[in-house]
C-alpha cells in the first residue's frame, strides 16, 4: 500500500510539514518495501485551491493514506471524496511517522484541523497546532 507524507525536504529524514496543501514536497512510500518517490508540490505557491490540487497529485500516484500535520476543509473534502484516509497531528521525520503508522500509533481524523488558507502566511487556522 502506498502512503503520502507531507515533507519539508526530499528525503525520509525530512521533517513532516504541518501543512498539507502548501508543503514543499510529498513523499510517496510503499509500506511493504519502504521504496519512496519524492514529488515536489507544484501547488504550494498557488493563490487558491492548493489543497485540492495537492489531492489530485497524490491520488494520481495511488496513495491510500495521507499523513500530515494539518488539513484544511477543501483538502479534507477532496481527500475524503477520493477515498484517501487522512492522518493529522504527525510530527517528527517522515521515517519516524511511517514507522508509527505501521505500528498503529497514528489515527485517522474525521474533520479538518485548520481553517481555509492555513499556511499562506497571514491566516490563522481554527485549531492551529503549535509545531
TrEMBL record:
Which residues are in the Dinitrogenase iron-molybdenum cofactor biosynthesis domain? 13-102
* Pfam families (alphabetical): Nitro_FeMo-Co (PF02579)
Q: Which Gene3D superfamilies match?
A: Dinitrogenase iron-molybdenum cofactor biosynthesis domain
Record InterPro entries:
Di-Nase_FeMo-co_biosynth, DiNase_FeMo-co_biosyn_sf, MTH1175_dom
Composition-biased stretches, type Gly residues, lie in 116-125
Native organism is Candidatus Terraquivivens tikiterensis
CDD domains for the chain: MTH1175
Superkingdom per UniProt: Archaea
- Region annotation (Disordered) ranges: 112-131
Query: What is the recorded name of this protein?
Result: Dinitrogenase iron-molybdenum cofactor biosynthesis protein
Amino acid at each position: 500500500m502506498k502512503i503520502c507524507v507531507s515533507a519539508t525536504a526530499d528525503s525520509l529524514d525530512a521533517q513532516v510539514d504541518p501543512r498539507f496543501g502548501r508543503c514543499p514536497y510529498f513523499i510517496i512510500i510503499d509500506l511493504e518495501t519502504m521504496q519512496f518517490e519524492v514529488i515536489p508540490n507544484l501547488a504550494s505557491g498557488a493563490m487558491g485551491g492548493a489543497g485540492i490540487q495537492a489531492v489530485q497529485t497524490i491520488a494520481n500516484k495511488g496513495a491510500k493514506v495521507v499523513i500530515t500535520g494539518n488539513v484544511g476543509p477543501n483538502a479534507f473534502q477532496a481527500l475524503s471524496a477520493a477515498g484517501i484516509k487522512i492522518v493529522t497531528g504527525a510530527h517528527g521525520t517522515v521515517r519516524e511517522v511511517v514507522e508509527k503508522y505501521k505500528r498503529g500509533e497514528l489515527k485517522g481524523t474525521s474533520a479538518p484541523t485548520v481553517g481555509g488558507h492555513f499556511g499562506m502566511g497571514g491566516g490563522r487556522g481554527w485549531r492551529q497546532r503549535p509545531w
